Amino acid sequence: MKPPSPDPANKKDARKPKRAFETVRKPSTKAAPAPKLETSGDGDRIAKVLARAGIASRRDAERMIEDGRVRMDGVILTTPAIKVKPGAQILVDGKPVGKPEPARLWRYHKPRGLVTSHKDELGRPTVFQHLPPHLPRVVSIGRLDINSEGLLLLTNDGELARRMELPSTAWLRKYRVRVYGRPEPAILADLANGITIDGVAYGAIDAVIDNVRGDNAWLTMGLREGKNREIKRVMEALGLQVNRLIRIAYGPFALGNLAEEAVDPVPPKLVSELFGPRPMLEQPKPEAAQKRPVLNHPSKKSR
After folding, report:
1. Hey, what long-range contacts does 284-290 have (CB within 8 A, 24 or more apart)?
2. What radius of gyration do the chain's Cα atoms show?
3. Quick one: average pLDDT of 4-14?
4. Which H or E run contains 176?
5. Structural domains of the chain in order of their starting residue, each with its CATH number
6. Angstrom distances, CA of residue 7 to CA of 2, 4, 15, 78, 177
7. Which of helix, strand or coil describes residue 18?
8. Which residues pair with 34 in a beta bridge?
9. Residues designated catalytic
10. d(CA 77, CA 69)
11. Among residues 104, 116, 97, which one has the least CA distance to residue 160?
């Protein structure tokens, strides 16, 4: 007997028998796509977040980003314009960045011979190398050059530092200045109208003579802009050479009798009165500064 002929409808199945199992696909070896980082929408910019966390000033934070030292959610950042979303994981030099702490201020009596920088390219000693070890990471509010001394304000909030440095605060910086030469009272009085030197315009400067000793004179000077080496350049234009410069006040904060290299915390209540509950977001309150003009009365004794 002949075997039954195959059904023509099943010829295709006869040629290709069914597989006993399905092929298992190998997992993809391609890396998962990097999370999308945004430069618009809600959230603060990364440089501002780093400044508020006390990592660095906003300007220095931008440099850190340019150097590839900052990661967010596993991605190396290349621009400070990136917005930080809630829950983002931020690393600087491989170390996690914590949540911002309440803004704090300290008065510091800077001696001569220290550079106001976290790191000096010439290897000179810096202010931050000489601070007490118990202080958190801080940044300076403004600078004093290596040969200047006196009051230097420190904060753990880089955004607050930027706010306090803005000319719009109009805070008076006062200095005791010793010059070599004979200053003319009338010429010093003209500085109240400002002065232009080599094309650079300097704002009003208050300058009075305290005393004259031999070839040197002590002056008290006040200014509100604080451009780089402003006092020394203005005095040089008047034929006077600055051989000592001591900052005795910065806005409502005074050097007082603070010992050299000593650090003194500003009471949190005063910080709140001056800047509000969120100082990194608000301008100083002028009425608060008038209520309490100084922490300590600056010493009038010439050193």
Report:
1. 284/163, 284/164, 284/169, 284/171, 284/251, 289/171, 289/251, 289/252
2. 31
3. 54
4. strand 173-180
5. 46-96 (3.10.290.10), 101-169+257-303 (3.30.70.580), 172-250 (3.30.70.1560)
6. 15, 9, 12, 69, 112
7. coil
8. none
9. 145
10. 8
11. 104
Contact 151, 140 (CB under 8 A): no
pLDDT digits (tens, 9 = 90+) for 150-184: 999 999 888 788 888 887 778 899 999 999 999 99
Token output for 290: 């008038």
Other beta carbons within 10 angstroms of residue 208's beta carbon come to 13
CB atoms under 10 Å from CB of 96, counted, come to 9
Q: How far is CA 94 from the centre of its chain?
A: 21
Other C-beta atoms lying within 10 Å of the C-beta of residue 117: 16
Distance CA 224, CA 228 (A): 12
pTM of the model: 0.69
pLDDT confidence bin for 4, thresholds 50/70/90: low
Confirm if 263 and 135 have CB atoms less than 8 A apart. yes
Give the pair of three-digit tokens for residue 126.
């810096």
Spatial contact of 275 and 141, defined as CB atoms under 8 Å apart: no
Tell me the pairing of strands 216-223 and 173-180: antiparallel
194 to each of 187, 197, 207, 224, how far by Cα in Å? 11, 10, 11, 11
- Give the pLDDT confidence of 62-108 residue by residue, as tens digits: 989 999 999 999 999 999 889 998 889 999 999 998 877 788 999 99
Helix (H) / strand (E) containing 242: strand 241-250
Beta carbons within 8 Å of 103's beta carbon, 6+ residues apart: 155, 156, 157, 160, 271, 275, 279, 280
